[in-house]
Amino acid sequence: MTAPAAPPLPAITPVKARPAPRPARNRRLTRTALRGLAAAVVFVLSVFPVYWMVLTALKPNAQIQSETPVFFPTSLTFDHFSDAVHADGFWGFWRNSLLVTASSVLLALLVALAAAYAVARLRWRGRRAFILLVFVAQVAPWEALLIPMYIIARDAGMLDRLSMLTLVSFMLTLPFTIVTLRSFLSGIPPELEEAAQVDGCTRAAAFRRVTLPLLAPGLLATSLFGCITAWNEFAFANMLIIKNQDDRTLPVWLSSFSNVFGTDWGATMAASTLFALPVLILFLVLQRRVGAGLTSGAVKG
Questions:
Q1: CA count, 13 A, side-chain hemisphere, 180
Q2: pLDDT at 260
């Protein structure tokens, strides 16, 4: 005797996903459009001065002096770059800026590395007060130091000397360098150094072989910041270099770049473009490591 056939199962209709409510979708699209518009406005406001500088350096004098602004020139020229490069003292001032920048950044890295290691790894009386003073020095306005630094340089007989300008640039970049490197050192486990010391390394050797390679992103980030600060520094360079004009740096030279007929805007913008080019190239080369370094240093420590 055969079993009765099972009744057929009812057909299952698939449940369709409910579409998102149209008002909510419209709000999301509106927010996205507003964010894109805000980003575009910020981009244009940030890039337009640079675009205008480079464009002025490439435009003929007739279009530069035109009463109607020329945003898209019909012809370009490199004569302004030739005038800037062959201007009296251009390469000497370039050398002065490079010397001050390299010396101050190297000195700041050496001092800040030792200070950051002492703060992050060692325990000593007055450590918290030292960190607080470093933060105060970092947020202090640089303009408030113009007159004191001039008096110190005058009394010490160090006016019109690149060594004094190097010390000032070193002083301006040191607090930020200490704070940033301390954050990186705090993010590196001290057990790595302790393991190296167990294997026979001294404290200094463990730091050099284990910790220092891990600090490469932080060193690059702080070095780039120091280079930008020292390379663009104008106020102290204009105040401390008075009589010996051969020791001026490029920013000070650019402020007085003119001829007997007035300011040569084409040559000035060409010199400004050449002045900004080294830092821009350095940033483009190191942007990935610098970005990772700034992000890592910001979330650790």
A1: 27
A2: 47
Q: Alpha-carbon Rg of the chain, whole angstroms?
A: 29
> What pLDDT score does 301 carry?
41
Tell me the per-residue pLDDT of 191-217, one tens digit each, with 9 for 90 and over: 888 888 888 888 888 888 888 888 887
Own/partner pairs for 249-256, CB < 8 Å, 24+ apart?
249/93, 249/96, 249/97, 249/100, 249/165, 250/93, 250/94, 250/96, 250/97, 250/275, 251/97, 251/275, 252/93, 253/89, 253/90, 253/93
Q: Quote the CA–CA distance of 54 and 271 in Å, as a whole number.
A: 10
Token digits for 269?
A: 């913008």
pLDDT tens, residue by residue, 255-277: 776 654 567 788 888 888 888 88
Count CB neighbours of 296 within 10 A. Answer: 16
Check: CB of residue 276 under 8 Å from CB of residue 232: no
CA-closest candidate to residue 233, choices 171, 181, 169 = 169
φ, ψ of residue 259 in degrees (nearest 5): -125, -170
Q: Report the pLDDT averaged over residues 223-243.
A: 85
**Cα(288)–Cα(278) distance, integer angstroms:** 17
CB atoms within 10 A of CB 249: 29
Distance separating alpha carbons of residues 286 and 118, to the nearest angstrom: 28
- From the list 223, 262, 23, 258, the residue with the least C-alpha distance to 104 is 223
- Whether 46 and 28 have beta carbons less than 8 Å apart is answered as no
